[in-house]
């Protein structure tokens, strides 16, 4: 009897180990801006499915993006095209962007400089941002994500001293992400414009 169960257990273990999905966990726009290697606003020009070869689940999408605005880590000029790659499958955190639409894209770079993006990187259309998020995103002064990331206000989580956020998404977390800025004030970082929350 036990010998009959061994193949079944092995098969179940193989199936279970192969099942996975995309989990992003705690997200905040300011935090993601700081953690990203590049941030840009661009229009999707083309989408191409690329075969990853014999390796299972390595197929990917390559989007050609026309740069409309550069916020961080982008050396290409405004108006030029850049390729960004993402996994093909949404279970692998792949992103589906529509050709012709414009998005704010934040992501990472491989060692060879190739830009990548996954769904946890907040690909979003400008219309989805609050006016506060758009201002913090596109400006470069003291009320910008960019400057405050450089000043060290990038630790935004449950262990943060000044800009604490609950790891579990709740109303306060969503409100702070939508309206507030983790801003350097003196030697510490504090929530600025959080009176709406």
Quickly list its features:
197 residues, single chain, globular, alpha+beta, OB fold (Dihydrolipoamide Acetyltransferase, E2P)
Through-space gap between termini: 62 Å
Give me the side-by-side strand order of the main sheet: 1-2-3-5-4
Per CATH, the architecture is: Beta Barrel
Helix coverage percent of residues?
10-25%
CATH class: Mainly Beta
Oligomeric grouping of the chains: single chain
* Gyration radius from CA atoms, angstroms: 20 Å
What count of helical segments does DSSP give?
A: 5
Average predicted confidence as pLDDT: 86
Overall geometry comes to globular
Class by SSE composition: alpha+beta
Q: What portion of the residues fall into strands of 2 or more residues?
A: 25-35%
Number of strands: 7
Describe this structure in words.
It is a single chain. The protein is of the alpha+beta class and 197 residues long. Helix content is 24%, strand content 27%. It has helices at 2-18, 29-35, 131-138, 145-150, 171-179; strands spanning 38-50, 60-72, 81-87, 102-109, 115-116, 181-185, 188-192. Keywords: Disulfide bond, Metal-binding, Secreted, Signal, Zinc. This is NTR domain-containing protein. It is found in: Secreted. Disulfide bonds join 22-93, 24-120, 34-149.
Reconstruct the topology from this structure:
Elements lengths: L1 H17 L10 H7 L2 E13 L9 E13 L8 E7 L14 E8 L5 E2 L14 H8 L6 H6 L20 H9 L1 E5 L2 E5 L5
Parallel strand pairs: 3-5
Antiparallel strand pairs: 1-2, 1-4, 2-3, 4-5, 6-7
Keywords: Disulfide bond, Metal-binding, Secreted, Signal, Zinc
InterPro entries: Netrin_domain (IPR001134), TIMP (IPR001820), TIMP-like_OB-fold (IPR008993)
Main location: secreted
């Amino acid at each position: 009897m036990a010998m009959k169960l061994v193949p079944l257990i092995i098969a179940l273990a193989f199936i279970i180990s192969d099942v996975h999905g995309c989990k992003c966990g705690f997200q905040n726009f300011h935090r993601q801006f700081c953690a990203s290697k590049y941030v840009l606003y661009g229009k999707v020009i083309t989408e191409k499915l690329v075969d990853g070869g014999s390796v299972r689940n390595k197929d990917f999408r390559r989007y050609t993006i026309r740069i409309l605005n550069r916020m961080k880590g982008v050396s290409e000029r405004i108006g030029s095209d850049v390729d960004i790659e993402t996994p093909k499958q949404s279970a692998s955190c792949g992103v589906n962007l529509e050709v012709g639409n414009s998005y704010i894209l934040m992501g990472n770079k491989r060692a060879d400089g190739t830009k990548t993006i996954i769904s946890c990187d907040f690909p979003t259309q400008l219309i989805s941002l609050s006016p506060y998020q758009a201002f913090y995103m596109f400006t470069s002064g003291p009320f910008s994500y960019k400057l405050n990331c450089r000043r060290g206000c990038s630790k935004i989580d449950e262990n943060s001293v000044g800009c604490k956020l609950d790891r579990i998404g709740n109303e306060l977390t969503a409100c702070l992400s939508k309206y507030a800025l983790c801003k350097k004030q003196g030697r510490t970082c504090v929530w600025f414009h959080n009176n709406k929350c």
